[in-house]
Design brief:
Number of helices of chain B: 16
Oligomer: heterodimer
Strand content of chain A: under 5%
Number of strands of chain B: 10
Strand content of chain B: 5-15%
Structural class of chain B: alpha/beta
Radius of gyration of chain A: 20 Å
Shape of chain A: flat
Largest sheet of chain B: 6 strands, parallel
Radius of gyration of chain B: 29 Å
Low-confidence stretches of chain B: 426-445
Order of helices and strands of chain A: HHHHHHHH
Number of strands of chain A: 0
Number of helices of chain A: 8
Structural class of chain A: mainly alpha
Largest sheet of chain A: none
Distance between the termini of chain B: 28 Å
Helix content of chain A: over 70%
Shape of chain B: elongated
Chain lengths: 280, 445
């Protein structure tokens, strides 16, 4: 369903609030104080409420049009849900146990997703088969995607801090979180995302086998790019989670793997949108 | 007349790799002074060797030895280096420039970390060590005593010494950039000297799970452990300690690296490439630079940490300006005092020489004129005396005027000594230059 002008206006306002929240934490304003941290968290929460409002209005409009209000039924809905998950993670972590610099990487990603929602949202939604396995498949895949986005963000921050430490260009009072913390976030997010992706893959395969060729992938689903990209993402994160077997695969190499996995996941999402024949 | 000379290199003129090859240990420093004195008798020498500089302070006769080339030759012989490897990094100062440089060094204005207090103790130590073997003399004694007094005055009475960041505190900040918590971390300290103790105390405040101190001498390691807690170990257990440690502080006096890349690669495999933060504050370095290229290793040496301190520390411009003004006024006082010290006795010598000559000639004349009366003899004596005084009046006045106007009287003194064959003044080596705080005599203790 095409989002209305009010929804787009609210979405824009939410993006402005999130952008302001990030700006409030920039080191150019001086050392981070409790007041600035609180202000940025409030702005994130306000932006999140704006996004929640957009989802509510959108769901109501869909219900009135087609009688269905379930989440993730179209691009607009799905992308905003993904953004909200990431935003919730940032707001919660930065409020409870801040990770230095997390919002500088994750919030721009959220803003990018919201921009994509504005651009791709009005696109005609694909048919949606409402079965349990479909719900499990889509829910697990999106949650997994959110986790991988967090893992990739932590991985990117890790690489930045690592190279600056190696080249001795990091100031003594760096605003970025420590390498150990970033590695932990990356690993935990990867574990969660891997588990969710595994559930998403299995439920997707079960749905395919159950429906036979009666899905958007068609009878030759085995050769679909969506399947192979999903498996690729799964393999990358499987490697990431086995450092005891591959001890060299930790630290900056693990961070690079998380970025690779996220890149594959983005390719998967793009393939789902633009591949002819409906790659969903 | 003694002339001052300084030959050396520091952190601005030479990289760490050159400085560590020229660094002198305490024993080597004494040996170097003795060796130079035997090569160049009558020369005053003080050798200042720290992590950031190696400097020879020399007082030698005018047109005497040693010269710059001879010092280079000495370094080539004693350190076994080629002159091309360090000679381009040497600087050469003379006379007033030496006084200015030494006073700025003692006041930490020439340090990588402006305002650090360690250099003052190092200058004092270098002077006292040289004094043990008769290195300083009539000129270097008062010079170094005054330099220490100036350093104390600057660091104690100006804001320059306030809010200092230290190398150890910066190292802790970097450790926080790598590790999130320290309650489960192991810290290993290799060496049990003063610098190692300072760094270890900073890290002990993080309350790590375990503190290990490894040293060649177990007694020293045990003494350090008593202060900071932990376990004392011998260097034979170093590999097992490295496999366990998350943070390594190294500060031994070893002339060769204690941890080499080949050895640490095996340790890194045992550690499964867990991150490790290594701080090498030794001079020469204890940890081979190639160790820093191994996966998981974050290696920082003294230069790296000091540069960060110098970069991040906010040095207030007015504090430095104030310190420099104080140092400049002290330099002027010292130079004036030194000139006066030489001027008075030399003028006295000149008058004495001329009056003696005149008296000799008058006596010779009186011998040829036996019929002179007593009053006539007196008049002849008076005549000779007045002629000498009138002849010397203008040159001596010019000399005093140059001194009073704070011009360089030294060229005049040198010419005087040379033309009239006068000797350099030999004041007592314990004679102290004027001090407005009256504390200069205490600095030599």
């Amino acid at each position: 369903m095409t989002p209305s002008i009010w929804q787009l206006t609210m979405l824009t306002a939410a993006m402005v609030l999130l952008g302001a929240g990030v700006m409030a934490t920039l080191p150019s304003w001086g050392p981070m104080t409790r007041r600035r941290r609180l202000t940025s968290c409030l702005l994130y929460y306000a932006g999140g409420m704006g996004l929640a409002g957009v989802l509510l209005i959108h769901s109501r409009a869909r219900w009135m049009l087609s009688g269905s209000w379930l989440p993730m039924e179209d691009n607009f809905d799905a992308i905003i849900w993904l953004s909200l998950l990431l935003l919730g993670f940032v707001a919660y972590v930065q409020h409870v146990r801040p990770i230095g610099g997390l919002e500088w990487f994750l919030i721009p990603l959220v803003l990018g997703l919201l921009g994509a929602a504005m651009i791709f949202g009005p696109a005609r939604p694909h048919d949606y088969v409402r079965t349990t396995w479909s719900m499990v498949h889509r829910g697990a895949s999106f949650l997994g995607a959110a986790s991988f986005a967090v893992a990739a963000t932590a991985g990117g921050m890790y690489l930045l801090a690592h190279f600056r430490l190696k080249r001795k260009r990091l100031p003594a009072h760096s605003p970025l979180a420590s390498l150990e913390r970033l590695e932990n976030v990356c690993r935990h997010a990867s574990i969660l995302g891997f588990a969710l992706l595994s559930v998403g893959l299995v439920s997707g395969v079960i749905r395919l086998l159950d429906r036979g060729g009666a899905t958007s992938l068609g009878a030759r689903w085995f050769y679909s790019p969506k399947i192979w990209l999903s498996v690729g993402v799964w393999v990358v994160f499987a490697l990431l989670l086995h450092p005891p077997l591959l001890p060299r695969l930790r630290g900056p190499r693990a961070a690079m793997l998380s970025l690779l996995g996220f890149a594959l996941m983005l390719a998967l999402l793009l393939a789902m949108e633009f591949m002819p024949g409906g790659a969903r | 007349m003694q002339r001052l000379m300084l030959i050396g290199l520091n952190h601005t003129s030479a990289p760490l790799a050159v400085r560590e090859r020229l660094a002198f240990s305490a024993e080597a420093r004494l040996e170097a002074i003795r060796s130079l004195q035997s090569r160049f008798p009558g020369t005053e020498i003080v050798l200042l060797s720290t992590c950031n500089r190696v400097e020879f302070y020399i007082a030698r006769p005018l047109h005497g030895q040693p010269r710059r080339e001879q010092i280079i030759e000495f370094l080539v012989d004693s350190r076994g280096l080629s002159s091309e490897s360090f000679a381009p990094h040497l600087y050469h100062l003379a006379n007033r420039q030496v006084v200015e440089h030494l006073f700025c060094v003692a006041a930490s204005l020439d340090s990588m970390i402006v305002g650090e207090s360690q250099i003052l103790g190092q200058v004092r130590q270098a002077y006292e060590a040289a004094a043990q073997v008769g290195g300083p003399g009539a000129l270097l004694h008062p010079l170094f005593q005054r330099a220490v007094a100036v350093g104390k005055q600057v660091l104690g009475q100006t804001p320059l010494g306030e809010g200092r960041l230290s190398v150890a505190s910066v190292a802790v900040q970097y450790a926080r950039g790598i590790f999130d918590s320290f309650e489960d971390k192991t810290i290993l300290c290799i060496g049990a000297g003063k610098m190692a103790a300072v760094a270890l105390r900073h890290f002990a405040d993080l309350h790590p799970k375990r503190l290990l101190v490894a040293n060649r001498d177990l007694c020293k390691a045990a003494a350090l452990v008593e202060q900071c807690g932990g376990t004392a170990l011998s260097l034979e257990q170093l590999d097992s300690c490295l496999a366990e440690a998350d943070i390594v502080i190294s500060s031994t006096g070893s002339p060769v690296p204690v941890i080499v890349a080949e050895r640490f690669e095996q340790v890194a495999r045992q550690r499964q490439y867990r991150p490790i933060f290594m701080i090498d504050i030794a001079m020469p370095r204890d940890i081979e630079p190639a160790v820093g290229d191994i996966q998981g290793v974050y290696l920082y040496n003294l230069d790296d940490l000091q540069q960060v301190v110098a970069r991040t520390r906010s040095v207030r411009g007015e504090a430095v300006a104030g310190a420099r003004a104080l140092v400049m006024s002290q330099i002027e006082q010292f130079v004036q005092w030194n000139q006066t010290r030489q001027l008075g006795p030399m003028i006295e010598q000149l008058y004495q020489r001329c009056h003696d000559l005149a008296a000799t000639e008058v006596r010779r004349l009186q011998g040829k004129l036996p019929h002179l009366q007593a009053s006539e003899r007196e008049q002849l004596d008076d005549l000779a005396r007045r002629i000498v005084n009138k002849v010397l009046h203008h040159p001596v006045k010019t000399l005093r005027d140059a001194h009073d106007q704070q011009l360089q009287a030294t060229p005049y003194l040198n010419a005087l000594a040379h033309l009239f064959d006068l000797q350099s003044p030999r004041p007592s080596s314990l004679e102290n230059p004027p001090s407005d705080q009256g504390k200069a005599s205490d600095e030599a203790k």
